[in-house]
């Protein structure tokens, strides 16, 4: 695209400037002025003068404190998949400026984390690793393994991450069940219209054996009653998903012949953490793989650290050397769509919160 109105694009993130990506953008959109300001929000705000002429803002946490600082702003792209951290910000509450997320860039690496940690639990890796450190040769009778062929996985939130998780588990012989807030009764309603990393995910939504949906307790409890071996949480955090799993839900899971393993890569607040810890100690959960906690960082005195059969990592599952390149792909596509008046990819629906 060689022409168009002059645009000023400000990148305000913690990453250092990528000359390669900036040059690529400039060649594609020569009328876009690009300013890359490497910024750590913990060290203070972005200088106000940088916001004045900005028409496109690219960031994660570095936002203007008030709308009057960005009189020309007409589009914001976030380097994160979730935007729960801006629900109370004027950009979200008091404007109609289009917001887009980096939903879709995390699928491959997060699905790898989910499978890796679940395998560690299923094959008692910590036991074998401890023996290795002690230079001891163990015995297969030390542990019990139920291989995954024919087992059932329930995925709460079948977006880009959930679809890649489903693809990975299905390849290992597992049966996939999807749960979404909105009904997906037809093949066309199950299509993924967001950003998709090539050769990943479930673009046409054909992997799940069954789709469940709803926003009520009854619909959630019906889904949780399907006797899953693994439950994966990939939901966005919204007021309606906060503490979605609590005492009632863990009681349903505890009543099943084989209590499931819980994997959470979304947000810690989606689970009532105290209820989860109790379920772990009481046997209502077989274990938990957690890349997110409530709060973060997890305090040293939290009982979650020593809960039974838990793997905890510090919100790192989304990390990848490809992260910046993939989210820049979304940005480039949307800059073109913005100029052409087309619908943006991954645009946030403020009514739904994502």
UniProtKB/TrEMBL annotation:
Keyword NAD among UniProt keywords: yes
Organismal lineage: Eukaryota, Fungi, Dikarya, Ascomycota, Pezizomycotina
Keywords: NAD, Oxidoreductase
Gene source species: Pseudovirgaria hyperparasitica
Molecular-function annotations in GO: NAD binding; oxidoreductase activity
CDD domains: 2-Hacid_dh_5
PANTHER family from the UniProt entry: 2-HACID_DH_C DOMAIN-CONTAINING PROTEIN, D-ISOMER SPECIFIC 2-HYDROXYACID DEHYDROGENASE NAD-BINDING DOMAIN-CONTAINING PROTEIN
D-isomer specific 2-hydroxyacid dehydrogenase NAD-binding domain sequence ranges: 119-187, 214-317
Protein known as: 2-hydroxyacid dehydrogenase
Keyword check for Mitochondrion: no
Family annotation (Pfam families): 2-Hacid_dh_C
């Amino acid at each position: 695209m060689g022409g168009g109105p002059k645009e000023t694009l400000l990148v305000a993130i913690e990453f250092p400037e990528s000359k390669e990506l900036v040059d690529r953008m400039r060649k594609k959109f020569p009328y876009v002025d690009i300013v890359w300001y490497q910024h750590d929000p913990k060290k203070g705000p972005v200088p106000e003068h940088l916001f004045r002429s900005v028409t496109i803002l690219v960031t994660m946490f570095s936002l203007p404190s008030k709308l009057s600082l960005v009189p020309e702003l007409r589009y914001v792209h976030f380097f994160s998949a979730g935007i729960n951290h801006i629900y109370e910000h004027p950009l979200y509450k008091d404007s109609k400026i289009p917001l887009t997320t980096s939903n879709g860039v995390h699928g491959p690496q997060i699905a790898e984390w989910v499978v890796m940690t679940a395998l560690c639990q299923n094959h008692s890796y910590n036991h074998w690793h401890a023996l290795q450190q002690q230079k001891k040769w163990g015995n297969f009778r030390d542990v019990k393994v139920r291989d995954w062929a024919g087992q059932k996985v329930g995925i709460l939130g079948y977006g880009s991450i959930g679809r890649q998780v489903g693809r990975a588990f299905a390849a290992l012989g597992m049966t996939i069940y999807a749960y979404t807030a909105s009904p997906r009764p037809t093949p066309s309603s199950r299509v993924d219209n967001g950003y998709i990393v090539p050769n990943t995910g479930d673009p046409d939504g054909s992997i799940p054996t069954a789709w469940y949906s709803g926003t009520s307790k009854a619909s959630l409890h019906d889904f949780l009653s399907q006797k899953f071996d693994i439950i994966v949480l990939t939901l966005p955090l919204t007021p309606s998903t906060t503490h979605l799993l609590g005492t009632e839900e863990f009681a349903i899971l505890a009543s099943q012949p084989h209590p499931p393993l819980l994997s959470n890569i979304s947000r810690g607040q989606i689970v009532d953490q105290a209820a989860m810890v109790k379920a772990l100690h009481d046997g209502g959960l077989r274990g938990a793989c957690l890349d997110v906690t409530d709060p973060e960082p997890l305090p040293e005195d939290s009982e979650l650290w020593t809960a039974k059969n838990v793997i905890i990592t510090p919100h790192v599952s989304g990390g990848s050397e490809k992260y910046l390149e993939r989210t820049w792909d979304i940005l480039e596509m949307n800059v073109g769509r913005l100029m052409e008046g087309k619908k943006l990819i991954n645009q946030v629906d403020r009514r739904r919160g994502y």
